[in-house]
């Protein structure tokens, strides 16, 4: 029996009866989509690829800060959370600092050179919660799926994000006032 962490829900089987599981929904496939219900059949090929596309976890919560050095000091010295690193994301004119905590991270974001979307946010609101980011295995498929449901994205295609990710943002007007980022991490 494979470790539980290697198994994910078979997305295909939710929509279509799974022949390897007596036609019931909720069959299982491994992350490569090669098995379903313990048999090598249903999820192989195209369906295996489709099974990879899904939102997996809360990747990070981003907070826009007017003074990144003061905000880092607050997290490190007052809250006692370890700073894991800093990274500039030139495509978003943003500099970032990361604080991993229990399977996700807090990401402080600050405008580079006083410009870009984070500067706009600071000008309007003076800082605060900026966006939630969910990790996806297949950003194009998730974008397409959500666009078909009427969600509006801030870009037509994924853009480079921090940590070698490719990211896309759902417009807050499509998502109850919350800016939502989808991020696909580089495959090993
Ligand atoms: Co983000």
Word description of this protein:
This protein has 188 residues and is α+β, with helices and mostly antiparallel strands. It folds into 2 domains: 4-51, no CATH class; 55-184, 2,3-Dihydroxybiphenyl 1,2-Dioxygenase, domain 1. 22% of the residues lie in helices and 31% in strands. It has helices at residues 11-15, 46-51, 68-78, 117-125, 139-148; strands at residues 7-9, 28-30, 55-64, 85-89, 94-101, 104-111, 128-136, 159-160, 166-170, 180-184. Strands 4-5-6-3-7-10-9-8 form an 8-stranded mixed β-sheet. The protein has a two-stranded antiparallel sheet with strand order 1-2. Strand 5 and strand 6 (104-111) form a beta hairpin. The longest helix has 11 residues, at 68-78. The model is unreliable at 1-50 (pLDDT under 50). Cobalt (II) ion (CO) binds next to strand 3 and strand 7. Cobalt (II) ion is lined by residues 60, 62, 107, 131, 133, 181.
Ligand set: cobalt (II) ion
- What is the average of the pLDDT values? 79
The CATH H-level superfamily of the largest domain is 2,3-Dihydroxybiphenyl 1,2-Dioxygenase, domain 1
Using the CA coordinates, give the radius of gyration. 19 Å
Q: Tell me, briefly, the overall form.
A: globular
CATH architecture assignment name of the largest domain:
Roll
Question: How many strands, what sense, and barrel or not for the largest sheet?
Answer: 8 strands, mixed
H and E order: EHEHEHEEEHEHEEE
Strand arrangement across the biggest beta sheet: 4-5-6-3-7-10-9-8
How many discrete domains? Answer: 2
CATH secondary-structure class of the largest domain = Alpha Beta
Structural class of the helices, strands and pairings? Answer: alpha+beta
Total number of strands: 10
Assembly level: single chain
Beta-strand content bin: 25-35%
End-to-end Cα distance: 24 Å
User: Are there runs of 5+ residues with pLDDT below 50, and where?
Assistant: 1-50
Helicity level, as a percent range?
Answer: 10-25%
**Which fold does the CATH topology of the largest domain refer to?**
2,3-Dihydroxybiphenyl 1,2-Dioxygenase, domain 1
* Count of DSSP-assigned helices: 5
């Amino acid at each position: 029996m494979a470790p539980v962490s290697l198994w994910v829900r078979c997305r295909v089987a939710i929509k279509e009866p799974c022949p390897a599981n007596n036609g019931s929904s909720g069959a299982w496939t491994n992350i490569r989509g090669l098995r379903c219900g313990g048999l090598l059949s249903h999820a192989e090929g195209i369906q295996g690829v489709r099974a990879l596309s899904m939102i997996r976890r809360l990747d990070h919560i981003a907070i826009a800060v007017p003074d990144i050095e003061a905000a880092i000091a607050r997290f490190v010295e007052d809250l006692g959370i370890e700073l894991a690193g800093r990274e500039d994301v030139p495509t978003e004119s943003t500099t970032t600092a990361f604080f991993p905590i229990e399977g996700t991270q807090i990401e402080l974001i600050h405008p580079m050179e006083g410009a870009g979307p984070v500067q706009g946010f600071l000008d309007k609101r003076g800082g605060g919660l900026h966006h939630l980011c969910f990790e996806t295995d297949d950003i194009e498929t998730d974008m397409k799926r959500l666009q078909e449901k009427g969600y509006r994205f801030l870009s037509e295609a994924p853009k480079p994000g921090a940590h070698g990710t490719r990211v896309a943002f759902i417009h807050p007007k499509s998502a109850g006032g919350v800016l939502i980022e989808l991020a696909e991490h580089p495959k090993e």
